[in-house]
Amino acid sequence: MKRRIAAALATALCAASAFADERPSPDDVRRVRDEVFARPEFDYTERKESLSLLERVARWWNDVVEGFQREHPILFLVLLGGMALVALGLVAHIVWTLRVARRAQWQGERPDDLEAALRRLDPGPFRARAVALAAEGRLEDAVRDLYTALLLVLDRRGAVRFASHKALLDYRIEAARDPDARETLAAFEAAYPPGSFGRRPPTRERFDGLVAALDRLGVTRR
Fold first, then answer.
1. Same structural domain for residues 139 and 209?
2. How far apart are CA 122 and CA 132, in angstroms?
3. How far is CA 171 from CA 58, 79, 159, in A?
4. Are residues 213 and 143 in the same domain?
5. What is the CA radius of gyration of the chain?
């Protein structure tokens, strides 16, 4: 409405200035009117917006969400609440993970952490637990841990590649070119693995001999 009044006033002023000395004809008035309404500020035709791909996708997604909200208002609120709970759970999980990681960094690895020892190929914790188990009379478990310590020593030495799925025969084949490693594995063969043919139950004397053989082997870096 304001634009139309402004247009009428502009037309009147233009007509008055153009025809100050004489009365304008209807054609002249219409011509001036058309010139005024031809200006850009009086163009009411809908212009086509040039949107980027991201803007078009965002507008489409906004239309989809608004349509879903109109058709299913209750379900929309339920989904909105569920997404909020999921977001809170993710934030809590991230905070908890960072806190646990920092705590582990501050505390460091425990000396008896056998999983960490396997990751860094450290035979020390397995040898220590084997000695402790032997002192309790649990020689079967002690020999098993001592055998794991031997494999880690041989891996560090470069004679074998430690893997949980390998059998004693696999390691003997790999260590065939290392006489010391081959002899030490042969010493363990009569005591490990359990259930092998001709195996004798371990004694404390035999366990001490295996510990001495392991210690004599030492570690030679690759």
1. yes
2. 17
3. 61, 57, 9
4. yes
5. 44
- Beta-carbon contacts of 59 under 8 Å, excluding residues fewer than 6 positions away, are 51
Instruction: Give which of 127, 220, 123, 126 is closest to 181, Cα–Cα.
Output: 220
Let me know whether 133 and 79 are in one domain: no
Token couple for 158: 């470069």
Whole-angstrom distance, CA of residue 123 vs CA of residue 146: 9
What is the token pair recorded at 153? 């020593």
**pLDDT per residue as tens digits for the range 109-148:** 555 566 777 778 888 888 999 999 999 989 888 988 999 8
How many structural domains comprise the chain? 3
Residues 125 and 38 in one domain: no
Tokens 């035709």 belong to 45
In a domain, 48, yes or no: no
Q: What is the pLDDT of residues 62-110, one digit of tens each?
A: 988 898 888 888 998 999 899 999 999 999 999 988 887 776 555 455 5
Distances (CA, A) of 173 to 98, 151, 159: 44, 13, 10
- Would you say residue 59 lies in a domain? no
CB neighbour class for 10 (10 Å; exposed up to 12, middle 13-18, buried from 19): middle
CA within 13 Å, CB half, 138 = 11
Dihedral (Cα; 176, 181, 187, 188), 10-degree rounding: -100
**Which of 155, 157, 151 has its CA nearest to residue 193?**
151
Domain that holds residue 123: 115-217
Co-location of 166 and 184 in the same domain: yes
Q: Is 75 part of any domain?
A: yes
Residues 121, 80 share a domain = no
